[in-house]
Amino acid sequence: MNYAEIMKIGFVLNWNAHGCSNCQRSGGRCGYDNNEFVCFCRDGPHAKTCHDGVISAAIVISLTFVIMCVIRSEKLSIKFFSNMTKSDKDIEGFIRSYGHLHVKRFRFSGIKQMTISFKQKLGRGGYGDVYKGKLLDGRLVAVKLLNESKGNGEEFINEVASISRTSHINVVTLVGFCLEGSKRALVYEFMSNGSLEKFIYNENPMQTTPQLEWKELLQIAKGIAEGLHDLHRGCNTRILHFDIKPHNILLDKDFCPKISDFGLAKLCERKESIISMEDARGTIGYIALEVSNRNFGGVSYKSDVCSYGMMILEMVGGRRNIKVGVTNTSEIYFPHWIYKHLEQGCDLRLLHGVVTAEEDEIA
């Protein structure tokens, strides 16, 4: 056979190239270069298909875009952080250092939506107004909108740090919070019966809210005590409330009491018996003497117990510790008032209309 003649005439050569069909579907022609498969395309040879270059370019463009966004985000973050007040920075620093919180962080637009632009006001606290709201899943909540001008953010940190450390049935549940610069809000579970103070004072003869029976008062007193015990001894970190009073005890639909408003709370190690405090905190009439004056001793969890005791006296007596509009100091301060009644031989248990032996035992 004359191979030279055959070469001059030419011949057809067929072979099976791996991946050739993919190359052809992408608009290319199969070939070889240095014994390596190559897909010849309009813009040049590619390793497998004509789309390789497009994909590579897309990847490069995407990575470039992502890098630019990250750089821009960092610049915006730095700019935003530099414009923040020291209070805002402290709070953001706390949120970051605290790690994963078991509560949701809401945007302020979400806060406005759940409260229908703060339509229904439930009451006013020491650090802001409280509004009724509803979550997307239908749950009712109470939203405390913190005052922008009051405090340095400590009350916000106290609330989040304290309540998120416990899940006791007698401590109000924190559902979430909002922190957008000076806009701060706290979202709690909704307590349909409001605060305890509505049910224990009988100062207004036109009052329509019924007073609680002795059994209910006893269960509420026990519940608050159990909640305080959990704060003081049930957590790894001891939580001192410093503002136990009827206004800060909320009641759910079954009159189960919940300790709320941790704006003045202080966290300390469980082994610490005496804690240091720079300033007095609490509400007049409930503050333990050592909190307002160090000459009476050191401040400890027992200071909460003193406030709790004053609240129990109010529940028994059916009147406020501090009575506004009374000029006689012996009638203003509740212990003086109690002492006066005991001196006169009055039975305090009759103030709530004790009539049966069982109620007498409870009282």
From TrEMBL:
Lipid bilayer topology: Single-pass type I membrane protein
Top-level taxon: Eukaryota
Keyword Transmembrane: yes
Compartmental location: Membrane
Chief location category: membrane
Pfam families linked: PK_Tyr_Ser-Thr, WAK_assoc
Keyword terms, alphabetized: ATP-binding, Glycoprotein, Kinase, Membrane, Nucleotide-binding, Serine/threonine-protein kinase, Signal, Transferase, Transmembrane, Transmembrane helix
Domain Protein kinase intervals: 116-363
Transmembrane segments: 53-71
Family: Belongs to the protein kinase superfamily.
Descriptive protein name: LEAF RUST 10 DISEASE-RESISTANCE LOCUS RECEPTOR-LIKE PROTEIN KINASE-like 2.1
UniProt lineage: Eukaryota, Viridiplantae, Streptophyta, Embryophyta, Tracheophyta
Gene: LOC107418738
